[in-house]
Amino acid sequence: MLMILWSSFPAWSSVKYDTYELGTGSFEARTSQISELTSVGRILSETAGVNTPEPFCLARGTTSEHSPLQPGQRRNAQFHAASLDVSSPITDSARAQCVSHGPHVTEVPDEPLGRDGGPRHADAIALGEADATWPQIVADAANGALREIYSPVDAMGKEIKPSLADYPAIPWNRIDLTQFDLIGKLPSWIRYVLKRAGMRWKSLYVVPMESGRGCPYGCDFCTVTGFFGDSIRFRSNKSVVDEMLVLKARADREQGKMGVFFIDDNFAINVKRTKSLLREIIASDAILPWVAQISANLLHDEELLDLIAASGGRWIFIGLESIDNDNLKDVNKGFNKPADYARVLSRLASRGIYAITSFIFGMDADRPGVARRTIEAIESWPPGLPVFGLLTPYPATPLYERLLREGRLTRPKHWLDFHPFRMAFTPKHIGIEQAEAEVHEAWSRSYDPAALTAALKKLRGRPFHERAVLIFTRLLFRGIYFPQMRLTQWARVLFSNRHSMVQLIREALIEDKERRKNMKHSGQTVRNWGFTWMNSGGWQLRFRSMGRSRRQ
User: Fold this and answer.
1) For 285, what's the count of Cα atoms within 13 Å in the CB-facing half-sphere?
2) Strands (E) located in 341-434
3) Peptide bond just before 109 cis, omega within 30 deg
4) What is the structure's pLDDT at 81?
5) N or C: which end of the chain has fewer CB within 10 A?
6) Is a pLDDT exceeding 60 seen at residue 67?
7) CA dist., res. 186 & res. 14, Å (int)
């Protein structure tokens, strides 16, 4: 049996979070020998220290036996991260072969192989981008000849950065999408309530999709440029559009709903190319609600914003990081201009596009009160989904090397002792405990009932589905920091936000009353509550028409 562990930081701690697979289903398409292989995945944890979801790892097995995989074999059993403890070292008695890959092992390759004096965690590692080396890894494993290290290099020893021009077709029409089903991740009692309320969807998938790789910015805290490089590579527009059409057809076939999360590190890094892609999505009727990561400096183009809205863009993740110019310059992200934040977010909101805004505390210019100052700025902007984390130094990043030279690392291998929202170094002008307290204050103030009420008030006059989506996504995002997986925890959250919930239902009744008046002219009748998916990419709580149209 062969399992692959896609590993960023931290990697060896026990896997205890829901998995969220991100776009590497191409491994299946590139590995013809094993038709059951699904793909690598990522785990979204609470850490928000970088622009990409961290950490991420997933092992998926393809065999229920201990014998090596053979070309063409089909096996049924799967490993699920929820029951896999990757903190356990590899021993002779472990017969499954584990291959580890990703930014973590690329930057500290001795660690997973146990060459640094610690336990061994993998039989083999794949360095860099493994598009070309993965088929060889599978073949070697099948033949019992797995090597320890696989590197994507040419005959001269130069690293190969794969072109995405020949990106394989990912078979989304047959891949198990259970882990992407947001409805399936809701507590059972919430699913029951939604079903009783008349929601007819059988699924609500948010599927990862890659349209390009690489980032030229090289922010000091980020692992992206070091891993993918600053050479930007793109898939063809047709490849992306065809993939979206496959997903759209599957949603129709399964009577579900489908959304896309573009996992590119900066979806609009080449604005001309992004416009071209969005135009083709619109022309091909491949429109699906989508989310993407785009830096604020690229969101001034009015035509780009119009195309984002028309092609299904609903949420944009923006790494704002700080409202302090000095902080941004210190981490080589001076292209962010805090003075422009409000204008950018307002332009998005006017088109029904909202932002997931990421902030990092613990930077060198931060002082006590940074949470209060940041929240005051956020409250002056259109409502969105702010997330907060602590500056986290990952190995081989410029940030890590600088802090190491300065002797400021308090936990030099913090990823081996993972604790969410814990500092790993000493900031200059704020204590470690104070920095952690600032993060707690930011989450508390951003997601308390008063903040939700204020956010909904700002959206008066906007379509009802935008308000409905905001209130429920806010309740869900609150769970990134605060525990709310149990029924009692959810009950407390809903009770504390009861006034906003009641107001939302009242608005739904008023809007539906007006709609029912208009429906009389067409002969339709309305009989019970239900949920309707809007073409604009949200769901709406409303009465569902059960009657048939009749001629006047």
Assistant:
1) 1
2) 354-361, 385-390
3) no
4) 28
5) C
6) no
7) 23
Tokens 């790993």 belong to: 424
Interhelix angle 449-458/498-519, rounded to 10 degrees, is 30
Q: What is the pLDDT of residue 276?
A: 98
Q: Using CA atoms in the order 12, 14, 18, 21, what is the torsion angle rounded to 10 degrees?
A: 20
- The residue ranges of DSSP E strands in 160-256, in sequence order, are 204-209, 212-213, 233-234
- Residue 195, CA distances (Å) to 102, 201, 535 in order: 40, 9, 21
Residue, of 222 and 41, whose pLDDT is higher = 222
Split at pLDDT 50, 70, 90, the class of 95 is: low
CA dist., res. 71 & res. 68, Å (int):
10
Helix (H) or strand (E) holding 314: strand 313-321
Contacts of 271 (CB under 8 A, 6+ apart): 298, 301, 304
Task: Summarize the confidence of residues 134-158 as an average pLDDT.
Answer: 92
More confident residue, 480 or 26: 480
CB 472, CB 465: distance < 8 Å: no
Q: Residue 538: which of 475, 430, 441, 463 has the closest Cα?
A: 463
- Average pLDDT of the chain? 79
The Cα–Cα gap between 216 and 223 comes to: 12
**Cβ neighbours of residue 72 under 8 Å, at least 6 residues apart?**
33, 35
pLDDT over threshold 50, residue 57: no
Q: Is the dihedral of CA 177, 180, 181, 186 positive or negative?
A: positive
Identify the CA nearest to 375 among candidates 434, 477, 446: 446
**Residue ranges of the chain assigned to CATH 3.80.30.20:** 178-500
Fold that domain 178-500 belongs to in CATH: pyruvate-formate lyase- activating enzyme (3.80.30)
Give the whole-angstrom CA distance, residue 493 versus residue 359.
Answer: 24
Q: What is the pLDDT of residues 72-81, one digit of tens each?
A: 222 222 222 2
- Please give the Cα distance from 452 to 538 (Å, whole number): 18
Rounded Cα–Cα distance for residues 436 and 430 (Å): 10
Q: Average pLDDT, stretch 110-118?
A: 92
Number of H helices and number of E strands within the chain?
18, 16
Beta strand spans in 32-173 (E) = 42-43, 97-101, 124-126, 149-150
Phi, psi for residue 334 in degrees, rounded to 5: -70, -10
Under DSSP, is residue 52 helix (H, G, I), strand (E, B) or coil? coil
CA distance 347 to 337: 16
Take residue 119 and report the two structure tokens written for it. Answer: 């336990």
Rounded to a whole number, what is the largest CA-CA distance in the chain? 83
Q: Output the pTM of the full model.
A: 0.80
